[in-house]
Design goal:
alpha/beta, 6-stranded mixed β-sheet, 10 helices
Length: about 260
Amino acid sequence: MTFDDFLMTGKIRSKMSDYQRKRDKAVEVAAAALAQHNKSYVSVSGGKDSVVCACIADAAARATGKDIVLWAHVSDASFPGTEETIRALAHQLGREVIINSSAGSAFDALRETKERRAFGKTGVFFDAIRDWVQTSGCDLCFTGVRAYESKRRMQAAKAHGATFSSRTAGNVDVCNPITWFRLEDVAAALVEYNAPIHPIYRKTAIGTAQNKFGEDGFIRLGYITSRDLLNKGTAVFIRLNYPDQWQKLCEAWPDIKNYC
């Protein structure tokens, strides 16, 4: 799927009643969570799903008279355009945004460790989340996690539902209002809300075969230094689309060349 295909899908899907019911249900889920908590934030990566999640949470907050803030962690491992996308989203929604910037270099950390742990819940990102929750007093976090992205996420969604308690996120409740959105629903919401879209989705995609749920393997935003997705084409994608970042990766971790 190309970026133009993605947008065209969104334009068509946004007019469909099935999508509109899903959107309304997502807002309803978010509103119910807001009503039961005192202070809430949206964890925003700048990726398509987290942007849509923020738009849904914003709609729910306006409907319930509640307030939300946006929170994001950025570092030199963030893809170009990430912070700009997040700030554009916050400006459009009229919401406060907290940008947590990593003090050290992610590339230095890559040099210092050989660990390659898939889906780990440790490290700078999760430490930053837990610190934010502790200092802010938030008791609810919205995230843009979707069940149809992977088998692992589908199992989690079926086990925990859209709202659940999480020790990993700092002993707060987590709400995933777009749990049951498919990729075409995300595209529809981006079009409907006229939301900012990260420039990474305009890059040349690598390995976009459908997953077991029939969802196109469209580009996913992560961190440049993440090792756990290298065998899924991330290294090739970075080498093709971000040559400057690729060079920095090679200098920090020469073994990355084995994945291309």
